[in-house]
Amino acid sequence: MSAPNGKPLLLLDVDGPLNPFAARQTLRPAGYSPHRMLPEGWLAREAARGKRARPIRVWLNPGHGPALMALPFELVWATAWTHGANQLIAGHVGLPRLPVITWPEMFQVDPDGVHWKTRHLVSWAAGRPFAWVDDEHTDADRAWVAANHAGPALLHYVDPGIGLADDDFAALKVWAEGQR
Description:
Structural class: alpha/beta
Shape: globular
Number of strands: 6
Oligomer: single chain
Number of helices: 6
Distance between the termini: 9 Å
């Protein structure tokens, strides 16, 4: 079952795929520019720890937005940045405002060991084909999605030390084209 516009969903995380946060501190990734940001989720997380949040460094590549828009997907933010992805990230990577998946609860521990996003993403997709681009899903998530999602799904891992690369874009394009 494809999306109303005939395209599968691309559920897009920020940290890892768009922000290669695990890249060596002393080496700026090629094509990326540094930004200092205070996303709401970061403020809340640090406040819950009793700490005062300081801006975080975010590496962003302005070429990612056009490359993502060229893929045969309907793009959706699937990130802890929630609406902050539109406010703080989209403009720096060349994306328009995208739909945002909001979470009933973030960072909770799942009894089956799946990522805290997994169950909600499957529910939100409601059987539509989707590719989930993230740096945190595991084999447990792949198995859970395969057993609980009625449509095709690709859980595409992106190395958080590298971010989205040409091979990732190629793999996503091939998968999406196979859903037509």
